[in-house]
Amino acid sequence: MRVRLIRWHESDAEELIAAIRDDGHDTDAAVPVGPADLRALRAAPPDVVVVDLARRPATGRDLAIAIRRQAATRHVPLVFVNGSDDAVERIAGLLPDAICCTRAGIGAALAAASTPRDAAPVVPRSQFAAYEGRPLAGRLGIRAGMAVAILGEPDGFRATLGALPAGVTLRQDARGRPDLVLWFVTTLVAVERRIEHLGATAGAGGLWVLWPKRASARGGELTQPIVRRAGLDRGLVDYRVVRVDETWTGLRFTRRAG
């Protein structure tokens, strides 16, 4: 079979690649970063997609949902490997027909994935299905004790944000390397001027770039592809999407490794 292995760090892939090839399958080990990778999958769907959950499990899960929601790829079996109990439980609720296994069980999982299925694949009703019902603070990655900078805050956002975990402090500037930066922005000029600096300023929680959706009353020139490209061109990588409310949406960036 042609196996597409999705992982987030080169060192994580060696054992999995070896195990997959030892079972007689062809594989690669791409690090997906955006729509171009989904387009490539649609153009030439593999026989199986294997998602390594050892790092960025939520990102891997969200990518799998995107694969399942595309007509060209939804028939491709999904195998998740190295997931924690919590990650596996969440995936089972969203994609009950996916296969979850340990590294040692990858051979058996691929054999199971090659077995024809009678039922139609499960398709989550939304790309954001994993986050429905979850508080906004949790979807933004705000955790207990964090220092969070909110830049360009729109009216009413604190009410939308709601209750926060214990010990979280909010500030209106990015001085002192906050753990997480939420940046509300409306123009491409501003994005291009500040995204690299803010990406370097943000701590381990990364940088959320948030803009008004075009379909909203405040919609303007910014779109997901435009913002993503601005980040990629400046050494950042996006790894999460969020819907804040009816107006604001965004991408979460971190600095590119290496």
What does this structure look like?
By secondary structure, the protein is α/β, with parallel strands linked by helices. 33% of the residues lie in helices and 22% in strands. It has nine helices and eleven strands. The chain has helices spanning 10-22, 35-43, 57-69, 85-94, 106-113, 136-139, 157-161, 188-201, 224-232, and strands spanning 2-6, 26-28, 48-52, 78-81, 99-101, 147-151, 169-171, 180-184, 206-212, 236-243, 248-255. It has a six-stranded mixed beta sheet. Helix 8 packs across helix 9 (224-232). The longest helix has 14 residues, at 188-201. The two termini are 32 Å apart. The relative contact order is 0.11. The mean pLDDT is 87.
Give the end-to-end Cα distance, rounded to a whole number of Å: 32 Å
Helix content: 25-40%
> Residue-averaged pLDDT, rounded?
87
In the CATH classification, which architecture of the largest domain applies? Answer: 3-Layer(aba) Sandwich
Shape: elongated
Secondary structure: number of strands: 11
CATH class of the largest domain: Alpha Beta
Explain briefly what this protein structure is.
This protein is an alpha/beta fold.
List keywords for this structure.
Rossmann fold, elongated, alpha/beta, 258 residues, five-stranded parallel beta sheet, 9 helices
